[in-house]
Amino acid sequence: MNSMTGYGQASANLSDYKVSIEVSSVNKKNLEVIVNTPKEWQFFEFLATSFLKKKIDRGRVRVLLTVEQQENSQVFSKILNGEDFNSLIVEIKSFMKAKGENFKLTAELVIELLQISNKGSGSTDTNQYNDDLLTVLLQATDSMVEMRQIEGKEISSDFELRLSRLSEMIIQIESASKDLPGIM
User: Fold this and answer.
1) By the 8 A CB rule, do 37 and 130 touch?
2) Entry pTM
3) Pairing of strands 17-26, 31-36
């Protein structure tokens, strides 16, 4: 007997990111998978749902993917030194010149452009992590399934104990009521 309630968590350090996946489930007749990810990692939703449909039969399963950029990440330096970023600056410079405005590249502007560039390119760059994400999801799911099995054994043990006590009470009631007239 397995419980329908469970929780599992796993994490991994990828080259540029630290990812953590939490999987939790509650009772439900059919399988319902809900996946929450950062916007740039939404591709993982389909991947996780397909994987979980093969692994779990029923329940409401929630998956939470959290992603933190590693401090030693080269994502921004790759963007800064990339051709696209430099051509974006050239385009902005020529746009400002055409409008008769001065263009000054400031640290604030660079940071804003980096954030925009990272968001725009995030979904294609992150697809390279599919296999790693599936490995982390498998670990978290296995942990949740193990918790469901352990809790299921506890529920089964508790149920058997209660049945045993009820059986003993029934025997005591039957024994005590044998001498009463009109019963049994």
Assistant:
1) no
2) 0.65
3) unpaired
